[in-house]
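User: I'm new to structure prediction. If I give you an amino acid sequence, what do you actually give back? Let's try with this one:
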Amino acid sequence: MSYKVGQRVEVPVKECQGVIAYVGFPSFASGKWIGVILDEPKGKNNGTVKGKMYFNCAENYGMFARQAQLILLDEAGNRTEPVSPSSAGSNATTPDDSGPARARSRLNSSRLSLTGSRTLLSAPSTESLSGSLHERRDGGESLIPAPTSTKRASFIETGFVETLKPQFVPGQAMAGSAVVAANLMEEKLSHMQLAQENDNLKSQVHDLTEKVETLRVKRMQDKERMKDFEKTKLQIEQLIEFKTKVMESQASLQRDLQRARQEAREAHAAREQFQEEMADLAETVEMATLDKEMAEEKAETLQIELEQLKDKLEEQTLDLEILRTEMSERAAGGGSATGASSYEIKQLEQQNSRLRETLVRMRDLSAHEKHEFQKLQKDMDQKKSEIMELGRTKEKLSARVEEMEHQIADLQEQVDAALGAEEMVEMLGEKKMALEEKVAELQEAVSDLEALQDMSDQLAESSKELELELREELDLALGAARDAQRHRDAALETLADRELTIVKFRELTHQMQEQYLQLQQRVQSTESTKTNVRGADQQLAEILDFQKTFAETRAQTKAVDLELRRLDADEARNHVCHLLSFMPPAFLARGGDHDAILMLLLIPRMTQKTEILISQVREKYRSIEKIDRASVIRGHSVAQYSFRSRLCSHMYSLQTALSCFESVLNSCSPEMLLKAGNAYPEMAAQEKSLDSLIELAKRDQLDENLPMEAIEKCCAYFATMFSVLFGESTAVNQARLIVNGTRTLGSACDAISTDATAIKALIQGEGGDIGLLCQHVETTCEVIQQHLKSARRRVPRDHAGPAFSVGANLGLDKDCNEQFSTSYQHAVKIVKTLQYLLKSALQAITENGDLDTGLPADKLKEMAATSSEKVYDTEDLGPVATIKASLTVIQQLAANLAQKMAECENELAISGQTQNQQQSLEGEQLTPILIRANAARKESEETKILSRKLETRDSDIREARLALREKQEELSEMTLRKELAEKRFITQQHEHEMNVEQLKRKLEEAQNQLKRKEKEFEETMDHLQTDIDSLETEKGQLKEKLKSIGKKTLSTVGADSIAGSTSLTSAMDNKYYVQEINALREALSNEHLQKKKIMCAVLRQKLDSLEPLSSPTSLKALDSTIQELRKKTTDLVKDVQKTLVYPTVPDLRRKLPETSYHYLLERRRNIMQLKERADELAAQVRREAIKRTPGGRAEANFAVYPNREMAAAMRERKLLAAEIKIPYNGPERSFSVNVGTQELRKIHTLLYY
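Assistant: Good question. You get back a string of structure tokens that encode the predicted 3D arrangement of the chain. For your 1249 residues, that looks like this:
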């Protein structure tokens, strides 16, 4: 039984009823599906699947099902079982039903013979039987036999269950007594048979009811299993979603962990590198400090030596004065010792000179040492600054390492949580596997029931697809055969026509010859009698001879003209070849002047070829007056006129691009002309498409079957090349652009309206959307034609010629060329769409065989959809919307163009007059090729001038060579002088080296003497040190003696005298020691003073090197940040109280076990978020404290770090600095007092002093 839309059905799977809303083959699955609108929201969709709407209903009220999954209901809501005749026949032949079938046949036969008997078959038994059949069918066991619908109907026939009443006829009672007795016997026998058959049927019904009950129980169990299956399926889906979420979170955590580990490794590597650098810097600093100390020690020793040398100099000066006084005294005393005194004076002078030299050297050495000391001081300061910077970076890195360690710990916790989730996922996976096994068992039972139906559906679909493919192949083959037959018939017709014409011409010539012979014979026979006839014949012959001679002379003159033109062409070609042989290679190079000239010749040549093609196609195919169905289907005039319009539109489009090229090439710069000439070979290759069309026109083969792809590519190539080479050029002749552009769009509109009218003629009945579209296309094309004609009429004709290639600006936009190109592309797409639609419609009509009937609108709409999709591809919005949109673009351009031309018509007239005057005054404008020719001439003249200059340069070079020879001779003399000077320099250098060696020897002697003096100084220092040590030991001994003396008491007088003598000696010693102690104290105090001065200087230098203290200027901004931090703190405290103090209790009444686990995970996630917020807020407070503490931060590019003191102060706990106890008898109370150092000292003095 076939299901229809609107029938009510029951869906056993959903346990509800519904109405059929869709029957067919949807796109989301193979086979036949039935869409049902349910009475309850137990469905899966609203009639829309994968974006396609099959029917409309409320959400979750619609579903799709197979035919086997539905049970049809009648009008009363009862189930009706469709039964095929084959199944009825098979059931009728089963052995279980053979007895009841025979019994019913006997009942039917006996019912006709019985009169006056009553046979009652209860209706409940039949109803229970039908119910049992329904339940048996639902159980799915087809092996149990059951009565068919035809058998069941025999039980409830009206004639069988009605009460049969005996008919009494008067006058027949006595005669029919024997008949009545026989009837009674037969009635008893039939009653016995019926009772026996009734018992058999009752037993059979009892068995069937038991089987139905068992099947009903099994069905209920299957329903419960299906419910369990649905529940387990939902749980499995939830577990799979949870598993995917956990795996995604684990994967993200693993990625974060890997990233954190990588950053930790990088931080450790940076830390190790930093430690190595710090170790190297520490070593360098130690070396620098050692060098500094050594330099300081050396400077001190040199200073001491300098002072010693000064002392010695003073001693020597004193000795010198003493010697002088002695010499003066000796000179006064006598001249006996003059020789000795003069010798001593000389010796002293030598010593003084040596001492002066040593003094100078010591001064230089001290200055050098000072310089080195300052240099080392600077290096030490630089190293200190580097150490400080490295310390800051180390602190930054250490802080970052701590942050990374915290992140690693957090990530480790997350990984642990993920591992716990993995264990749970494994447990759930095991449960899922067990449930999947149960599901597999249930699915096997379901798949066995659906396999046969799916198999039949698949076979039906495959057979339908095969049938469709074979039909398509047959249609294609028939179409190809028809095309071949049509071409063969056309060829045979042309051959027959030509043969007929040849035969006719032959017959005509034969008749003319016979007439000629007859006329000659008549002339000869009737020469004397019929003079008038002879004159007429002679006149006719003269006329024929004149026409023949005129045609021969015209052909001869044409042949002579062609020969002369061929000679002129050959001569011009040879002339050009000879001229090119004189040209340089640069002229013939790619992109040179030769290509530019060929480009200038190519553009008008292609324009003339397009004009030839347009004239040929217009002469061949005339316009048509009426378009009807017969002319479209049986004739070719409509297709030929459409072909003419399409070809003319392509030719006019090509003329538009070529006119733009011509106008720009006549007004551009020479460099742009050469750039365009570089593309000449590609443009020359595009000319072949026009040549092929001209060849077809020569052979008269230019018909509607010609493909247009080549000429469309040619038009697109020139349009794109113009935009590539020149861009938005303003030198375009806009008048010619408007004329050619309007002609292009006009021809395209003719083709569009012709095709639309033809399609409209093919529609059978009401037009529908396609008919309205064709009507809209016709009216729109008429409007566009009117706009285009009005715009073309307003263009001045003198501006549209090639003489006005420059300056013919009509005030249009710069992108007018692109607008025409886009409109032409839209028109081509519309023409292609309509052509495809028309061809497919004609093909469908020819396939139907009935040429007098058209196509319905729906089928044409489907064809139009395929055609628009084929042409527009991704831009397709449906045939109606797409074609209307393209027509709107063309109409808008035509309307804007007509409006623009109407607005500037008067301005064009005025500007045309002024332009004519300017052109007459200014004369002819130079084209770029002429400019290039003038430049080439100038270059040739300049080459001649340069050749003359080169000749003069050669003479100058000869003179310069002569002068060069003279200079070379002078140079040789100078080299001789130089060699002599070098020899002198070598001798002087040798003398200088000798002097240096002598000075080095003297220096070594002075150094040796200095070393000897240093040794002597060291020996004296050692001696003095030993003296000092001995004195100290003696001092210690004396102190011990004094202590022992103070303790003892004098016992005797003799001892007093001894003590007196010893006291005198000890008193003397004590005075000596006291003086020495005072001197040492003074030296120690001086040493302390010097040390304090040095320390003050060092501290002052450090204080000066410190950064100035930063005063808080922006107090308002800081207060706002504090307020923000306070707000964040209060919010965080509220959230913590809400989460921890007031936790929410999960709903334990829910049956799903994962809700509590989900609540636990949600609570953990909230706690983790609160921890992160608390850490972030603490970090913000720490940063703000660092910023507010002057000198407590280290600036960096990406963060602010505290210095060591600030970090230590932030980490340390509050220490008990002091505790003040005040005597008080009352209860203990503590007061916090903020004091400074001075106040603390005052409190300390008040309490303890």
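You can read the tokens as a compact description of the fold. Here is one thing that stands out. Strands lie at 8-11, 16-24, 33-38, 48-49, 52-53, 62-65, 71-72, 1193-1195, 1200-1202.
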